[in-house]
Design goal:
- By secondary structure, the protein is α+β, with helices and mostly antiparallel strands.
- It has 2 domains: 116 residues, DNA polymerase, domain 1 (Orthogonal Bundle), CATH 1.10.150; 139 residues, Cathepsin D, subunit A, domain 1 (Beta Barrel), CATH 2.40.70.
- Helices cover 28% and strands 26% of the residues.
- It contains 11 helices and 10 strands.
- The C terminus is likely disordered.
Amino acid sequence: MSLEGSMRHYLESVGLREICLQLEGHGFNQLSDILSMDDEDLAAVIPDDESKKKFKTTLHQDGRLMKIWLDSLGLGQYYEQFQASGLTSLARCSGLSLRSLDGVNFNLPGHKKRVFREAQSLLGYGTVMAEGAWEEHEQLRGGRFGKFLCLTADIFARDPQDKRDNPNEGAAAVPHRRVKFMVDSGSDIVTLDDDIIKELQLPVKGCAKQEVPGGQIQEKPLYSACLGIGGKMLNVEVLPDNVSTLGTPVLWEFRHRIDGEKHLWLSKADEFGIKS
């Protein structure tokens, strides 16, 4: 399985001829060049969202580009092992974890780390939807417990795009509030400060039992709300608490990149029609 000819020849063969001049005008002249493009590069070169989506989807799904990518990293000798491990396309490699590479027998540990590092930004895979950070959370006793991963997001009394209740009501009229949430990957719920619940008059959905300090089970009201993160709207169930938190039901809706300074919330592959 090989690719012959220039980048122009390849893009023409997959129906992306109109993008050639834009890429070449920005110095992306080889196939290996376009695989290293990040979201900022893509936005500058291909401003049209539909064209950008088509470009990313096509390249992520073309298994022939795997060999070119590995060769560009100086690791082409692992191509057959990647194929045998099911890592057969850029979509399967983009944003992968170190554990995902366990099926490849790397000669040196540095080779594994190189693949992992480059895979996190492979062809701008995963548009940044929102950006969180390590911050002190004021609801935790003035932040005296140190810094936590936090994200500021919008909480709505209902989905602002859903106008079925009142066709004449615009999104701006839906009660909402900007809230600083603490990210809690050990929780399977979303919690919200009780004062905010009352302010937004969130509708009660039912009741839920929750274990409280001391091991006792307490019944609490369960509310419905809509959570807005970077333009993505999620219908969520909310429990009242003294700390506003985002649990795994929300985390699972995104891909994530975390370092010592920030937490990037990335779109999932299938939001661009990309099948991993």
